[in-house]
Structures are given as structure tokens and as C-alpha cells.
Amino acid sequence: MNNLHSSDYDMYFFNPFTRDLINLPRFGKPDHKFAFSCAPTMSTCVVFSICIHLLPHHDSISTWSPGAMEWVTESFKNQLYLSNGQWRNIVFSDGLFYCLTNRDKIGVFDPSARYWRVLIVLRPRMHHFLEGAWYVAEHKGHIFLIDAASSRKPVVFRLNRSPLIWAEKHTLKGSTIFASPASCVFKPELTGTTRNKVYFSKMPFNSTSCMSYSFDERRYFPDRTEGEDFANPQEDFNISAFTTIDSEIDISSIFGDKLRI
Questions:
Q1: Nearest-angstrom CA–CA distance, 194 and 88
Q2: Where is the KIB1-4 beta-propeller domain (predicted)?
Q3: Is 174 left (phi over 0), alpha (psi -120 to 50) or beta?
Q4: How far apart are CA 198 and CA 210, in angstroms?
Q5: Alpha-carbon distance 6 to 36, whole Å?
Q6: Other Cβ atoms closer than 10 A to 165
Q7: Rounded to whole angstroms, what are the CA distances from 260 to 104, 140, 198, 231, 237?
Q8: How crowded is the C-beta side of 86, counted as CA atoms within 13 Å?
Q9: Which residues of 127-152 are buried (b: 16+ CB within 10 A; e: fewer)?
């Protein structure tokens, strides 16, 4: 999906291998994040868009499906009545879109029921918030958060169901994560030296360099020589302390059987 930086914001899906192009209705709101549920060639595809800015009392969400002539835009009440911050990461899992912020919230949208719920979690204990230092991936109904700003090594978390907490994972069990600011891919079946690694298209401290981290060898490739302040900070600022304000929240009660974390 691409957004032409013009006044009318034409949008389309483009397959670089087949050169196929799927046009979407024009979208006149530049300050939105986008995600989609499956291949746009499928009739069940849902394109999801949310205004990145957290507004005081509502969140603006737009959706589009193949065959529709225009976007469906709705303003949903923000149950927390909180502003400040931005929606940054979106992932689709088991029929639901999950949105994370650079603050302390997880938004969950059910496109079939047109239902939006914002859950609050404690803000990470970080010395600095680094733009582009968090990545989100989905695999078989599980949501993973990769923190590339932590000291010495990236930290991977999986979102547990009840209580709603981020649990640190010390191994990828042979799987591989390809992380970029635009999207992340979780691959469980790769072989050889690519197993149990996280590949970054770029790092927060070096926007021109691709790097990987091996959980088996506990090191970066190539060596993480740049950004030494982040590798050896004066204070620990990893996000291992994710938890919830109310540990009794079971989000399956909110979305029923559709939610499987």
C-alpha cells in the first residue's frame, strides 16, 4: 500500500513482482496509520486506518473493503478520556486490529462488529523513548513486541491473555523475526544461521544500517559499535516491566471467542 504525497492522497496496493495495481478510494487525511487484514485480492480484506493523534475524547477510524466506492469513517468514543501521545503500531490478529501507542494504551478494533475499545497498560520503564525502536509482529494469534532500545540486546515480549501483560521471551524457539518501521514478519520455518534471530531493516541509532541479533550467540551482527550510549546506558531503560493497571482484566470477555492471545 502506498500513499502518493499529493493533494488528493491517491492510494493503492502495488505488487512489485506481478506489477498488479489495486486502486483504493482517495483518502484526504495524511495523519493516519494503515494496516490490512489479508491479501487485498481477497474479498474479505479489510483496510484499517486510524488517526495517529490521540484526541481528547474520540478516535477517528476508517475502513475499506474490496468493491467499496468510498471509505467508511467513524468517530469512536475514547473510553479513557485521555489525550497526548500517538498510535504507532498496528497488527491484525484473529479478526481484530490491535493498535499500540508510545504511551500506555492498546486499542482493539473489531471490523465486523464496528466496535472499538481502548485498554490501558502501565507505561514502560524507559530512560528514553526512541522513535522507531518498537516493533510489533503477529504469529498464530499471538502478538509479539520487540524493543530495540533496550540495553545490550533487543527484548522480545508476547502479549498474554489474562491477566493482560507483556511476558518477556528469552528465546524465539528457532523462529525468525524481520522487523521494520512499516511492518514485521514472524517466520517459524527458516533453517541454518537465520534461526532464532531478529533482523532489523534499520536501528534507531543508525538509520542506514541493517543489523541482526542472534539469541543463540547473544550478539549483534555486525557488532553494535554505533549508538554506544544505547548499548551501555547509565540507567536501565528496557521495557520488561509492562503490566496492567487492573490485573483482573480479561479481554476475552470484551470480544468473546474472537480474541485468542
A1: 28
A2: 8-206
A3: left
A4: 11
A5: 22
A6: 18
A7: 21, 9, 24, 35, 30
A8: 11
A9: eeebebbbbbbbbeebbbbbbbbbeb
Give the model confidence (pLDDT) of 115-151 as tens digits.
Answer: 998 887 655 554 455 555 778 889 988 888 888 876 5
**pTM of the predicted model as reported, rounded to 2 decimal places:** 0.75
Q: How many CB atoms lie within 10 A of CB 220?
A: 19
Q: How far is 64 from 35, CA to CA, in rounded Å?
A: 11
Domains in the chain and their CATH numbers? 1-120 (2.120.10.80), 124-255 (no CATH)
Which residue is associated with the grid cell 530512560?
127
**Cell digits for 72?**
467508511
Alpha carbons 141 and 155: distance in angstroms, whole number: 20
CB atoms within 10 A of CB 72: 12
Q: How far apart are CA 216 and CA 30, in angstroms?
A: 42
pLDDT of residue 42: 95
Taking CA atoms, 89 is separated from 33, 86, 161, 236, in Å, by 8, 9, 19, 24
Residue whose entry in the numeric block shows the C-alpha cell 496509520:
33
Residue 177 grid coordinates: 523475526
Q: List the chain residues with pLDDT less than 70.
A: 1-8, 54-56, 79-85, 102-104, 121-132, 150-151, 203-209, 224-261
CB-CB neighbours of 171 under 10 Å: 10
